[in-house]
Design brief:
By secondary structure, the protein is an alpha+beta fold. Helix 1 packs antiparallel against helix 2. The protein has five helices and five strands; from the N terminus they run H-H-E-H-E-E-H-H-E-E. A five-stranded mixed β-sheet has the order 2-3-1-4-5. It is rod-shaped.
Length: 248
Amino acid sequence: MSERERRAFRSVGFRSSLREKRKGKDKKNTSINNYTLSPEQQKREREKGPSTDREIERAEEETDSFRERERERERERINRKKMATTSSISGITTANNVRKIQRRGSATSSSSSSSSRRVVRMMAAPGTDGTPYVAKNTFTIPSDEAGVKLEEIKRRFLEEMQFREQKMKTMPDYTSSSLKEVGANTYEFSQEWKTKEGFEGWMNTPERRRSHFPVGVYQYLPKDKWSVPENFAPVIKLKDPPKPPKKA
């Protein structure tokens, strides 16, 4: 601590002593008002007053500057402590990251050395990465239904599918569609679109929503998650749909 700081530190006590002197001076001034002092003494007392006030102000300024320096040093100590804590935490984090990388490297080397493990690759959804979006549905007409002959039900079903294909050809992103007979009175309808949005656009058209099959047409639940079951068509769950015949 420098000499100036020591003087400022001692000025707190010095200020109290000056205040006591000031009180005594006030009493003397009171006596001056009562004309108990000589004119020379009154003059000397008046000259002492301002000098004493200046000393008090100087002591207060030095005390304030000393306190401000102490606050600045305290802030610096707190900042150094925070920086030390941050550096230690970053060092621990870096060490943990190095250990993780080492473990991953060892795991990768062990997995590459073992030939019995399989590599699983995630496949993107159709219609999202340039691959076509294909949906398949299988329908069957077992027999007569509600007084309507089997042949009449088949005729209405084929007419409805023909109407759908004509409307689909006018939609954007349409590629192709086909209706194949894969068994006795069983049909598989396949449709292909460039994007998934094109398929969804077709499914949301008013014509598609109003299009329904006649009574007597049943469906098998699609096995893939891309195809959408037909609305208002009963589902057959007892057996799997027949597979299409292989090409010769």
